[in-house]
Design a protein that fits this description.
83% of the residues lie in helices and 0% in strands. It is mainly alpha-helical and 169 residues long. It has a domain of 118 residues. Helix 2 packs antiparallel against helix 3 and helix 3 packs antiparallel against helix 4. The radius of gyration is 21 Å and the shape is elongated.
Length: 169
């Protein structure tokens, strides 16, 4: 009987620790997605500057070379361009995306749509650079949040698990 009791208490402690770890990972995922978006925008900027490919083709290539969530944004925007303008398609794709990005991050990325497909390549490149500057700020903020909150959630999960175990003993 004692073995079952201690096994259940151990499982409670283990599960609460894992929940804490799981919650702490969202900060890492946000940072990775911001960095991936910044990298994808670099590719986008280079393609516009040097290859003069149409935006849907560039988005297709970026979606194939990017990680899951960010690649989906570009692929979704490419698909929406069949119906809408590039700027509207981009805004919809970012807004409907299922990512770990905050609303503030999404708003910065949506700002790219202002000149997307509406101006010459220099205007689009300057808008991409502005967006990247704002993303750099968000990346720095995400690094700080990750450092502060990742340990907090991990330890909080373990502490809550220990408290539950102590109460149940």
């Amino acid at each position: 009987m004692q073995v079952i009791k201690y096994s259940i208490l151990f499982l409670i402690l283990l599960s609460s620790s894992l929940i804490g770890k799981y919650l702490s990972r969202k900060y890492l995922y946000r940072l990775e997605e911001l960095e991936e978006m910044n990298s994808a925008l670099n590719i986008f900027k280079s393609k516009i500057k040097f290859t003069y490919e149409p935006i849907p083709e560039i988005f297709q290539e970026i979606s194939e070379n990017s990680k899951k969530n960010i690649g989906k944004i570009f692929l979704e925007a490419k698909e929406k361009m069949k119906i809408d303008n590039a700027n509207i398609a981009w805004e919809k794709a970012v807004e409907e995306s299922n990512t770990n990005l905050k609303k503030e991050d999404k708003n910065i990325i949506k700002n790219l749509s202002k000149l997307l497909g509406q101006t010459d390549s220099e205007g689009q490149i300057s808008q991409i650079e502005i967006t990247q500057n704002f993303l750099e700020t968000q990346i720095k903020e995400a690094i700080q949040e990750k450092q502060k909150n990742e340990k907090l959630y991990s330890r909080l999960g373990t502490t809550i698990g220990l408290a539950i175990v102590i109460v149940l003993c």
